[in-house]
Design goal:
This protein is an alpha/beta fold and 443 residues long. The chain contains 16 helices and 14 strands. Helices cover 45% and strands 19% of the residues. The protein binds S-adenosylmethionine (SAM). Keywords: Membrane, Transmembrane, Transmembrane helix.
């Protein structure tokens, strides 16, 4: 991405580098600059006094000296500000930092440690070459284009729960944790904004937990790590994991074994309802990586899809009905449409000129009377081929889900849940803890 023949290029590169400094480095740098300015000013006091007695011309000279120093400082800040904005825009576009020219430059930029469990790279390759069976929603985030089209959604102002509401919901639910946490392991951090908010809360509880993100998308993983390094410079971030958390917990268990305990595993953004394997398969596999006294925080959406699909029961629907008007929904539909092309390997499924999902995609709806959930499967039906692209689920209540978790997962206790409503949509945060398994009963 080098810009050719741009005379301002060296200035921009410098500004971008400075813009990527951590907050701590910033404070140190600013103190240094102000310190020098203060020292120079104090040193020039006798000069100023002499100038005052020497007459107006000398005063003017001192005035210009101070004005030039201030202008220089302002210029420094302006270049830095522009550099930071440019660097963030580049990362938001799925790019890594400006191409480094050598090892020293890699060291200078943020070079993060990434691990992948054995087999993951082969899985990814199979998926990219042939369309791996069973990869629906997972495939949507993969690659620079996957990360970029997700970021277009998550960066829209209508995507986020308002920060104030989110923070207070986190504070309410985390009030049930009675000890300082050692680390936060985030499953699917997306753009990292939610994790940054969660880390602020955890850091404010007197502990300084370390942070480990796990994501299937390299672009999102690096962006998250960069964000956390900038916003939580003091939090240890030993490594990130590029992998698939729907399986592979044998490897994750080893990788995460050394992280300070108790650990909080988070899986937020309604991700559990989208999983290809489904929640019933995911939780038992994932639980094998959760140790005694660890916590798990996840969220689901409450309500149903009646507003978009009508109050009918199970049936087949036009998927375009799921995306009402509005810029954020337009972007979300593009994310799903581009992903559907990738999973089905059929370019016709999305008409980007008119922003429409085409007749090769259908939504199948199931309503579960016992659990009270309303579930949608977006399905591709091509010539002789059929694949699930994405799943969504909303709950009337989570009583059955919480009971199921307690009964199926060893030592699982539901510590409580907290609801947060924003723009008419209610998200329920559910907090679990793994307790010691009851001692075997003597016969
Ligand atoms: C719906 S986004 C949620 C992002 C974020 N937690 C939030 O609250 O905004 C789902 C995230 O999970 C990741 N993801 C989905 N399935 C995954 C899988 N099987 N393994 C690893 N990461 C996965 C995606 O790449 C993405 O970052």
């Amino acid at each position: 991405m080098a810009v050719v023949n741009d005379p301002l290029e060296p200035v921009r590169t410098w500004g971008e580098r400075i813009g990527l400094l951590s907050r701590f480095a910033w404070v140190v740098l600013s103190c240094g600059v102000f310190g020098i300015l203060a020292a120079v000013s104090v040193a020039s006091v006798p000069g100023i006094l002499a100038a005052v007695t020497a007459g107006p011309e000398a005063i003017q000279a001192v005035f210009w000296g101070v004005a030039i120093a201030l202008a220089f400082l302002l210029l420094l800040y302006a270049i830095t500000f522009i550099g930071r904005r440019e660097a963030e825009a580049r990362l938001a576009g799925g790019m890594t930092a400006r191409a480094p020219a050598g090892a020293a430059e890699v060291d200078e930029a943020d070079a993060f440690v990434l691990y992948s469990p054995p087999g993951f790279v082969d899985d990814l390759k199979t998926h990219l070459e042939k369309g791996k069976v069973g990869w629906g929603q997972r495939a949507l985030y993969v690659g620079v284009d996957g990360a970029r089209s997700w970021l277009r959604v998550s960066e829209h102002e209508d995507y986020d729960i308002s920060e104030g509401k989110l923070r207070s919901a986190f504070a309410d639910v985390m009030a049930r944790v009675d000890r300082p946490l050692g680390s936060l392991v985030s499953l699917g951090p997306g753009d990292g904004k939610v994790d940054a908010a969660l880390m602020s809360l955890l850091g404010g509880k007197g502990s300084r937990p370390s942070y480990v993100p796990i994501d299937i998308s390299e672009g999102l993983l690096l962006l998250t790590m960069k964000r956390l390094r900038m916003e939580h410079a003091g939090a240890p971030m030993p490594f990130g994991v590029l992998g698939d958390f729907e399986y592979g917990w044998d490897a994750f268990r080893h990788l995460l074994a050394g992280q300070p305990r108790p650990r909080l595993f988070s899986i937020l953004g309604n991700t559990v309802s989208n999983l290809d394997a489904g929640l019933q398969k995911f939780f038992p596999t994932f639980w094998s990586g959760v140790a005694e006294n660890d916590y798990v925080l996840f969220d689901v959406l409450l309500g149903n899809f009646d507003e978009r699909l009508g109050a009918g029961d199970a049936g087949t629907y036009d998927p375009n009905l799921l995306f009402p008007d509005g810029e954020m929904m337009r972007r979300y539909k593009a994310f799903i449409g581009e992903g559907a092309r990738r999973v089905s390997m059929d370019y016709r499924v999305y008409d980007e000129e008119h922003g429409r999902l085409t007749q090769w995609l259908k939504v199948h709806r199931t309503r579960e009377p016992v659990d009270g959930y309303d579930q949608l499967h977006l399905q591709y039906h091509g010539e002789g081929d059929s694949k699930t692209i994405f799943k969504w689920r909303r709950y009337r209540d989570t009583k059955n889900l919480e009971n199921w978790l307690t009964v199926s997962l060893q030592g699982c206790e539901v510590l409580g849940h907290v609801d947060v409503t924003d723009d008419g949509l209610t998200t329920r945060l559910i907090l679990l803890r793994r307790n010691a398994a009851p001692a075997a009963q003597a016969l």
